[in-house]
Design goal:
This protein is mainly beta. 10% of the residues lie in helices and 41% in strands. The protein has a 22-stranded antiparallel β-barrel. Strands 1-2-5-6-3-4 form a six-stranded mixed sheet. A hairpin with a 2-residue loop joins strand 39 and strand 40.
Length: 986
């Protein structure tokens, strides 16, 4: 990874236009064994390169100017193909997730296995401002959004579909760029640059496993190209890529991640149905072994629970538990079975398959112009599973449930009900258990269709410099087919209980037709579209002491749309038709046209001082319009030192979900009200599972009156080059977003606790109660949904510092034949604050906040990486160190401003049965890549991830994963894994 500034040397090392991962070493000027013939040849090559560079267009991400002498005044990180290979990145998604500037709110693929809104997708979050403030491009062109919004709110581009083998480099502009690209480019821009031409055949095969033999990985790609652009005037290549990453389940891991029993780490036994030494059964809940009890005519029971199928007892779930269960008659002895649901059902990461096919062509239309076309089809299939549905559940809307639906005495045909052992006594029965023969599975298949064309070139001019022009068009459609199996409708469960169609005694005898009648397959089809046409022209106007004054102007018109219907709509005329709460009712729809005009002016005042001024006006068909300016300055008094800085404004328009959609998001809440807790106890006086930590919903509705977010960006830094092989950079960044759009930022904990205490709720906020506690059905219920709306809050601010170092040199002495390439980068987050409408400030830096907006990934203050490559002849060795600092497991968006100062608020977001540990430790990771170039055609390599076997630190507050934070320490769960591969080029 190179910190590219275009200030000192244009690159630190040369690379072949191939997939061979050993960089070509620079020739030492001191070598004296060159022959005269070779020297002459080199001079000719150098002359050719010099001549060709006179007409070469150099484009810097974030700029329209094509002057080869232009310098970026914004910090840019460039990840080349060789960088990716040296560091063992299998795809561009992995490379982006490793960026030190990638912060809170990044979407990892592991989130899919834990119920993420945007399952099957991945996206970065530069500066921690969430995925909707990072603009992702390919060759400077926009892409369509993923059809499912992040947290049901934010539009973003899924990076999983992008074919890595076609990328020449990835440029990460870590500065606002709304003046160049419009909305969304608030925190930065990620621009994937495709390879201009490929000649001959290139191929790759890669496979790998973890040290346990799981987490399988396979990757293949093949590319073939025809023609030489310089010789033949064209180059065409086709490419296909395949990657499969196997699912990983909690049961495949070691303790404590494979069980709910946390007594071994200082917690409690959280498995379902635990027999205490006093003879009581705690954590009473549903398991695959169905139990029944005489019904009291409502939601409770009048007798003890007993196993329905006495001949099978608990089967593989161990011995029958006999003990007292709260809610049954005093002194009665119930029967049930224990289950480790975490080990049986929980999933670490989904199965993820990526397939793509691309065709690329570049044609030299004239000596000064080129036509480039590209078409890509890709798909990403994500599959994950979870706990089967219980018999006693409620609908997503909480409008109806099955708690009072009992097994009848007689079936509709007049016969006694065989599922009801009390039918002969004319007694209805309550039944509880899991539909274990109806497994819960979700698959999300996204398909992407993208076509683009670009015609660009130069035209001679008799004044100033030549004209540069660029005309391009891109069209992209992304479709998503989400298929959910194993989730019942309320009516389906009622029919199964009341009509006797489902065999509760022996579920293996049920037919697929019966199972499908209870849980019909749920298929939702969504689509997004992006069509964009742009034209720009630039030229040098006149000279100043520092060089040519360049002006660029351009215009863009684009259309974007989103169609994302609810997969679980609510019909007030038929509430039982709704599915249970496992299917989120998120929906959003809309379309808009955007017209834009923009300019950029490069001002080289002096050889030591240059400036840049840019502006853009955007007009939205929804009624929004905005002008965004940007100015930059570069001061370079000597070759070894430079100062740079930028100031800009930016904006983000409300997403379709924020203005007209609806979603329900879930976070963790643990009740604290003592009076309420005392009404929800086990027989031994401990708090029962109903009153422990659970997922509380935030039901957020769109607001058509939202205003756009307005951003203010500032960057300022220094670049130091003490030698010709060593670079340092230090950059400060500051971003403020006014009118920040968020769900009403009331404290979830405060609202829920106020509801439990019977207090008045904040204006505009209401609560939907949960189903009753089955063990204490007459006790007041817990809150299920907090009903909110999106609003423009006051502002969100973040600032910090980036540090970077790059080196490329031969080692001294006897190691002179070893070339050393080193790149390092670190980001420190000084501040990340949300100011509420009433002026109160929530502070997140160094905590797990913002909790609700970023899947409880948190805001670690430090992230860093350092890679060192050692090349000896055909062998290269690259160790890379990654570091993420620890943080407090407290979050002021959940527990209120000021609560971060100590750990007293940790209990409010603590996961059930976990020990009290407020501080999450830092995480280290060391990866190693070994590469050997056999000859000019063949190359082999091996990647070892988490070489030293560092374990993920415990995080007992996050809800995005179980006991650890997948945003920062996923490799610490997988532990060591090994990938082996071979590259071929002919």
């Amino acid at each position: 990874m190179t910190v590219s500034t275009l200030l000192f040397s244009p690159c630190l090392h040369a690379e072949k236009s191939s997939n061979i991962t050993v960089p070509v070493e620079k020739q030492d000027a001191t070598k004296s064994n060159k022959t005269k013939k070779q020297t002459t040849k080199n001079i000719k090559i150098l002359k050719q390169k010099t001549e060709s560079s006179s007409t070469e267009n150099i484009t810097v991400t974030g700029s329209m100017l094509h002057d080869p002498n232009v310098s970026s005044m914004s910090p840019i990180t460039t990840i080349s193909r060789s960088d990716m290979a040296r560091r063992g990145f299998s795809n561009v998604t992995d490379a982006l997730q490793a960026l030190s500037s990638n912060g809170a709110g990044s979407l990892t693929n592991a989130f899919s296995g834990n119920g993420a809104f945007a399952g099957g997708a991945s996206a970065p979050s530069l500066r921690g401002l969430s995925s909707d403030s990072t603009l992702v491009l390919v060759d400077g062109q926009r892409l369509s959004y993923y059809p499912l919004s992040d947290d049901g709110q934010r539009n973003f581009v899924d990076t999983n579909w992008i074919p890595s083998s076609l990328m020449e480099s990835t440029e990460v502009l870590e500065d606002g760029a709304a003046t160049r690209y419009g909305a969304d480019a608030v925190a930065g821009v990620i621009n994937y640059k495709t390879r201009q031409q490929i000649k001959g055949f290139e191929g790759n095969a890669e496979g790998g496993l973890s040290q346990r033999g799981d987490a399988g990985h396979q990757k293949l790609y093949a590319t073939y190209g025809w023609g030489d652009l310089k010789r033949d005037g064209y180059n065409i290549y086709v490419n296909s890529e395949y990657q499969q990453d196997d699912a990983l389940y909690n049961r495949q891991l070691g303790y404590p991640y494979k069980t709910g029993d946390l007594t071994g780490i200082g917690g409690e036994n959280g498995n379902t149905n635990v027999l205490t030494s006093a003879g009581n059964i705690n954590n009473f809940g549903a398991t695959p072994i169905t139990v029944v009890a005489p019904s009291n005519g409502s939601t409770g029971v009048s007798g003890p629970w007993q196993i329905l199928n006495q001949s099978k007892n608990c089967g593989t779930y161990g011995p029958v538990l006999n003990g007292y269960i709260t809610g049954t008659p005093t002194g009665s002895v119930s029967q049930t079975c224990s289950q480790n649901a975490t080990g049986d059902y929980a999933q670490i990461s989904p199965s993820l398959r990526r397939i793509s096919a691309s065709a690329h062509g570049v044609f030299q239309v004239s000596p000064r112009s080129q036509l480039t076309t590209m078409f890509t089809y890709s798909q990403a299939l994500s599959e994950y599973s979870g706990t089967p549905s219980a018999v006693r559940v409620q609908s997503q809307s909480r409008a109806i449930n099955t708690l009072s639906t009992s097994l009848p005495v007689y079936l509709p045909d007049g016969t006694l009900n065989p599922n009801n052992p009390f039918a002969s006594n004319n007694q209805t029965a309550q039944v509880t258990g899991l539909f274990s023969d109806i497994p819960y599975q979700t698959s999300q298949l996204s398909e992407n269709f993208r076509g683009s064309a670009r015609y660009n070139g130069t035209a001679a001019s008799h004044w100033g410099s030549d004209w540069n022009y660029d005309i391009n068009f891109v069209g992209m459609n992304t479709t998503l087919e989400q298929t959910i199996r194993g989730v019942p409708t309320i009516q389906g469960i009622m029919n199964a209980i009341q009509n006797g169609t489902y065999n509760f005694v022996d579920s293996s005898k049920n037919t697929d037709a019966v199972r499908n009648s209870i849980a019909p397959k749920n298929v939702m089809n969504a689509r997004t579209q992006e069509y964009s046409g742009e034209m720009s022209v630039s030229k040098g106007l006149f000279k100043l002491p520092g060089g040519m004054v360049d002006l660029a102007i351009g215009g863009n018109i684009r259309y974007e749309s989103l169609y994302d219907p609810s997969a679980n709509p609510y019909d007030k005329n038929d509430p039982a038709a709704q599915y249970t709460g496992k299917i989120n009712p998120f929906y959003a729809m809309g379309s808009r046209w955007v017209k834009s005009g923009f300019f950029e002016l490069g001002l080289p005042f002096h050889k030591m001082l240059s400036g840049n001024i840019a502006g853009r006006y955007d007009d939205y068909s929804e009624g929004f319009s905005h002008y965004t300016p940007k100015a930059g300055l570069l001061f370079k008094p000597v070759e070894q030192f430079a100062l740079r800085g930028t100031f800009s404004r930016g904006f983000r328009v409300p997403s379709f979900a924020e203005t007209g959609g609806s979603n329900v998001g879930y976070t963790t809440f643990r009740p604290q009200n003592a009076a309420w807790l005392n009404q929800h106890l086990n027989a031994d006086g401990s708090v029962n599972s109903y009153a422990r930590s659970y997922s509380i919903g935030s039901n957020t509705a769109g607001n058509p009156n939202l205003k756009p977010e307005i951003a203010t960006n500032f960057t300022g830094g220094a670049l130091i080059k003490p030698t010709n092989w060593l670079n340092f950079s230090f950059d400060y960044y500051y971003i403020k977003k006014s009118n920040y759009i968020a769900a009403n930022p009331v404290s979830t904990t405060d609202v829920a606790e106020a509801y439990l205490a019977g207090q008045t709720l904040p204006a505009g906020v209401s609560v939907t109660p949960d189903i009753p506690d089955t063990q204490n059905p007459n006790a007041p219920p817990r809150p299920a949904l907090i009903n909110l709306g999106y609003i423009n809050t006051n502002k969100v601010e973040t600032d910090g510092v980036d540090f970077a170092v790059s080196a490329n040199h031969r080692l001294p002495g006897v190691l002179h034949d070893v070339r050393w390439i080193s790149t390092g980068r670190a980001t420190y987050v000084h501040r990340f604050n949300l100011t509420m409408p009433d002026g109160q400030v929530q502070r997140y830096a160094g905590t797990i906040g913002p909790y609700g907006a970023v899947s409880a990934s948190g805001t670690p203050r430090w992230r860093a990486n350092w890679s060192n490559t050692f090349i000896y002849k055909n062998l290269s060795l690259t160790p890379t160190v990654y570091y993420t600092s620890g943080y407090k497991a407290v979050a002021e968006d959940q527990t209120g401003p000021g609560s971060r100062k100590d750990c007293s608020s940790f209990n409010a977001i603590q996961q059930s049965f976990t020990p009290s540990q407020c501080h999450v430790k830092s995480f280290w990771d060391v990866d190693l890549t070994v590469n050997y170039r056999i000859n000019e055609h063949w190359n082999i390599y091996a990647n070892v991830y988490n070489l030293l076997g560092f374990k993920a630190p415990y995080d007992f507050a996050t809800y995005g994963s179980y006991l650890y934070n997948s945003a920062w320490s996923q490799k610490g769960i997988v532990l060591r894994s090994f990938h082996f591969g071979v590259n071929a080029r002919f």
